[in-house]
Design a protein that fits this description.
Blueprint lengths: L2 H16 L9 E6 L2 E4 L15 E4 L4 E2 L8 H10 L5 E5 L2 H8 L21 E2 L7 H11 L4 E4 L3 E6 L2 H22 L9 H11 L8
Parallel strand pairs: 6-7
Antiparallel strand pairs: 1-2, 1-5, 2-3, 3-4, 5-8, 7-8
Helix pairs in contact: 2-4, 3-5
């Protein structure tokens, strides 16, 4: 496997902590590669990782490498299998997202940028023990066509086309969660209706696309 891609994964994992999305050795990050995926190992300090520490898992779930993969590797593998547009996956215990997740609260359409995650809201998957197939199944069920969801009593998971974009999406979802919590501290925010969110989703399908 390409050492360049492994190094990009390490650098993004370090940035995930530096940005405040994650802390310590929690969370995990992966990217799709030829024949399977590359994923961060379990229990190791991101800042100390070397390219050989990154774990390769093939499409059949066979682990190749000297390290054990993140305990949440099933979620990554199942998302890649279900979503051909997923090129990178990020899971973090981001503070605002985790706070809502511990309340089993989704992020509703209180702000139009919720649509950046690919749906009218950002749902919360039901609780299941970390690392379990039940947890992965629950995440896939609520994700649907979306690119992000919360995980009850756990955190955030999202996917995008590449490592840079998945970091951007995770930061956006965490900021939405923080703003939603701030709104709730004053009153219930006004929720945009489905018709408006469908308009926003349509506009987002071409948002940021430049003419050549």
């Amino acid at each position: 496997m390409s050492d360049i891609l492994r190094q990009q994964l390490i650098e993004t994992a370090i940035e995930m902590n530096r940005s405040g999305l994650n802390r310590g050795r929690a969370g995990n990050l992966s990217c799709r590669c030829e024949g399977g995926m590359l994923i961060t190992p379990t229990g190791l300090d991101y800042a100390q990782l070397m390219p050989d520490d990154i774990v390769f898992i093939d499409y059949q779930g066979e682990v190749k490498g000297s390290r054990l993969p993140s305990s949440e590797w099933r979620i990554h593998q199942d998302i890649y299998a279900a979503r051909k547009d997923a090129g990178a996956i990020l899971h973090a215990h981001a503070t605002a997202c985790t706070s809502l997740a511990c309340l089993h609260m989704p992020i509703p359409a209180f702000h139009y940028m919720v649509a950046k995650a690919g749906g009218r809201d950002i749902p919360c998957a039901p609780y299941a023990t970390f690392g379990s197939q039940e947890l992965s199944d629950g995440v896939l069920e609520v994700l649907g066509e979306r690119r992000a969801c919360l995980m009850a009593n756990h955190g955030l998971v999202c996917h995008e086309q590449d490592l840079e974009q998945v970091m951007d999406l995770a930061i956006e979802v965490e900021e939405l969660a923080r703003t939603y919590l701030l709104c709730l501290s004053v009153d219930e925010p006004v929720i945009l209706d489905d018709e408006e969110m469908d308009r926003v989703l349509l506009k987002f399908s071409t948002y940021g696309v430049q003419n050549d």
